[in-house]
Write a structure and sequence with these properties.
- The chain is built from 13 helices and no strands.
- It is an all-alpha fold.
- It has a domain at 1-123: Alpha Horseshoe (Serine Threonine Protein Phosphatase 5, Tetratricopeptide repeat), CATH 1.25.40.10.
- The longest helix has 19 residues, at 18-36.
- The protein is elongated, with a radius of gyration of 22 Å.
- The two termini are 38 Å apart.
Amino acid sequence: MMRYVLTALILLTLNGSAQAQNDVLTLNERAVESMESGQPDSAYYYLFQAIKEDSTFYGTHYNLGVLNRDMGKTEEAIINFTKTISLNDKDTISYMNRGIIHAKLHNYELATADFIRVTKLDPRNKEAFLNLGIIDNVLSRLPESEERFLKCLELDTNYHSAMFELAKTYIEQQKFDTAFSLLNKAILLCATKPEYFELRAIMNQMKGDKKSSCKDMETAFKLGSVDEVIHRIYSRECN
């Protein structure tokens, strides 16, 4: 999850007097503290006060976007991140946030544009390439999806999220052995993701390895898998 800006690090982007700068920073810091302590109403108050002090400080609009996103106000969050970008068009984090919201709303063209913009500003941003690959996969652009995930692994050879997504792409391409190998590696790198074990359980079942399949699915349930339908099926077959 994208977090709030560290306002103390971006003092020089503020306009106005030193006192006005300090006031805006203090209001942003109080807003962040309020949100992190579960007081969103106070956070809104401080951020709106900060905008009154200086409406050109992009950090305030970014923090408001994160707050609205976390409160489920996606349309408002998009407006906030768009405002942030208008004030600082090199703010990759706002492009990422806006792109993720667009993707969740199935606005894939808008999401793609945001993630591509991130890769132009930061060619080593593996999360942007990962999101592009996921969108390509959703739209059944499997060769493009594979290319994006391979780019992620070029940037970070231990990027287990990319391994998992690439494994899913290979399954759709019926490259089962390659997919299974990647999935095993992803689990070795991160054994706390229930979805990794769920997918491997399904693949083990396809291979006829019931014992391994049941073991993986049980691990997935312990880690917090929420797919009740799969849970019931495996509970009947494994007991």
